[in-house]
Design the sequence.
């Protein structure tokens, strides 16, 4: 992850929560599983031990990843943004130029993105196309299937 990626206050809270769970629940649980598997004797052919060690590596990797993200994160409260153009944190209403279907997205940090919940990553092609634009602008998003055009109906910071 690159340093100084923006993240919303809600996104930071989610990462803090996951980090706490990993450190207070997952880590002790996997250490216990390793000790238990070790107590069964020969660990050279012990699948439980191997699985527990693999899980431990995943947990430690995720802990390090979250700590790195939080250390380099720029925490932003979208409600405090006063911008006349679309920037990180904006909630945007778009109209698909072809289908006239309206969609809404909030531009959020990489770890917060969840398209089903209407949250797109600041690094996504759509978010990149929207940043710097304003109401009434049309943006084109290139995708492997076809280019899509959207008209910006409105945006706000909440």
Sequence:
């Amino acid at each position: 992850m690159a340093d100084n990626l923006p993240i919303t206050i809600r996104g930071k809270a989610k990462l803090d929560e996951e980090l706490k769970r990993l450190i207070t629940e997952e880590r002790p649980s996997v250490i216990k599983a390793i000790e238990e598997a070790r107590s069964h004797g020969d660990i050279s052919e012990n699948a439980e031990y191997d699985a527990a060690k693999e899980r431990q590596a995943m947990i430690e990797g995720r802990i390090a990843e979250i700590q790195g993200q939080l250390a380099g994160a720029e925490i932003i409260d979208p409600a405090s943004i006063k911008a006349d153009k679309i920037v990180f944190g904006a909630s945007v209403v778009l109209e698909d130029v072809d289908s006239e279907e309206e969609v809404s997205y909030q531009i959020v940090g990489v770890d917060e993105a969840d398209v089903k919940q209407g949250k797109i990553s600041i690094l996504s092609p759509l978010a990149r196309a929207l940043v710097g634009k304003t109401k009434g602008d049309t943006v084109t998003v290139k995708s492997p299937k076809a280019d899509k055009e959207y008209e910006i109906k409105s945006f706000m910071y909440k």
Q: What stands out?
A: Residues 6-76 form a domain with the Helix Hairpins fold (CATH 1.10.287.180). The chain has two domains: 6-76, 78-156. The mean pLDDT is 90. The longest helix spans residues 9-38.
